[in-house]
Amino acid sequence: MKLDVLRLPHAADLPLPAYATEGSAGLDLLAAIDAEVELKPGARALIPTGIAVALPAGFEAQVRPRSGLALHHGVTLLNTPGTIDSDYRGEVKATLINHGDAPFRVVRGMKIAQLVVARHETAQLNEVSELPASRRGAGGFGSTGMKSDA
Hints:
Blueprint: E1 4-7, E2 18-19, E3 27-30, E4 37-39, E5 44-54, E6 59-64, H1 67-73, E7 75-77, E8 82-84, E9 91-98, E10 104-106, E11 111-119
Antiparallel strand pairs: 1-5, 2-3, 3-11, 4-10, 5-9, 6-8, 6-11, 7-9
């Protein structure tokens, strides 16, 4: 699929998002900030990426955390995954939060999140008086247990 990307003026010197490897599902999003942002433990900040996208109808993009930031620094995203709808034309941004023990510095051009583009369906709701039975029923929140039966 073709994805139209607008590089915004404050990201003129930054590369466009790219897949890190041939098998990557997500495009790496970069911090398009003018000054370093320090995230103290427990703090959050909205970080611009310097791009806007025009997704085709029937597609969405999800802004997702980077596993290395989470593992090594305790930094992840709030509102995960953040959904970019096909009719949104504003800047893609990422809300970072520091769950780590030490301050974390976000610098210009740093990989802060990833963007995964996927097809989606638009559901047509059909109101019913009851749902068909299933083996699981209404069980949730741990109802299937913690151990493998294998």
